[in-house]
Every structure is written in C-alpha cells, then in structure tokens.
C-alpha cells in the first residue's frame, strides 16, 4: 500500500508534463490506471474567440492528455498491462454553436484515443473514452469582451 501523494499539474502546460510523469514513476514505479479528466472550455462565437485562446483550449483538452499518456505509456507497454481512460465530452461526437474550440479539441482527443485503443490491443492495455453529456462545472464570470476570462475549468 502506498501513501497518497498530491502532485499538482496544469494539464495545459505541456512543458511540465514529462517532469510530472517522471516524478510519478519514480515515486510508485508504475501507473496501473491513467484517468485523463481535465478540461477547459470557453463559450463564444468563432469570430470573437482569439486564436491564442483556441490554442490554449487545444493544449488543455488535446495535447495535455496525449502528452501525459505518451509519458506513461512506455512503462505500461514494458509491463504489458494497464488501463487508460479519457473522460471526454459528448461534444467530442457532435458540435454545438458557440463551442467550436472546445468541440474541436474533444473531437481530436476522441480520434487520438480511438487509434491508441487499436494500437495497444497487442500489449493488453485497455483504452476507453467516456463521453458524458453536459456537466455543470466551475465557471469564472468574464467582463464583457474579455473571452480569456470566460474559460470554464
């Protein structure tokens, strides 16, 4: 039995994910189950959301989970066991107005993890995606015209 260890990670900060994965593997030796359950979203018309904010959403919802998964994956492959779960969104299957960046990032994540599932079958590593419907999440209220502050976490 291992004592719990709190490790803080900003999933949108791609540069720190490798270090966090190393810290986890050094502490515990392996990861049996990786649950990717972090997300950011913003509500707004496509023309009102900056490309910078689109990229931030993509970092958190797509590049973050795949970077963490790729960092943990070699350990699972070498042990020929493990489970990887992506908690995604129904918007990874269908898009709705005013959520273009969010839906695009979730579609990309579904595509990646679907391919990963097929590739990991030979290593007995299970890959699952969960696409729940709308979830009430923490929201920072933004000032009018300040889409950066309108991020949902």
From TrEMBL:
Keyword Signal belongs to the record:
yes
Q: What are the GO MF terms of this UniProt record?
A: oxidoreductase activity, acting on the CH-OH group of donors, NAD or NADP as acceptor
An annotated GO BP: intracellular calcium ion homeostasis
Q: Which SUPFAM superfamilies match?
A: NAD(P)-binding Rossmann-fold domains
Q: Please give the Pfam families that the UniProt record associates with this protein.
A: adh_short (PF00106)
Record has Signal as a keyword: yes
Keywords (alphabetical) are: NAD, NADP, Oxidoreductase, Signal
Family to which this protein belongs: Belongs to the short-chain dehydrogenases/reductases (SDR) family.
Q: What is this protein called?
A: Dehydrogenase/reductase SDR family member 7C
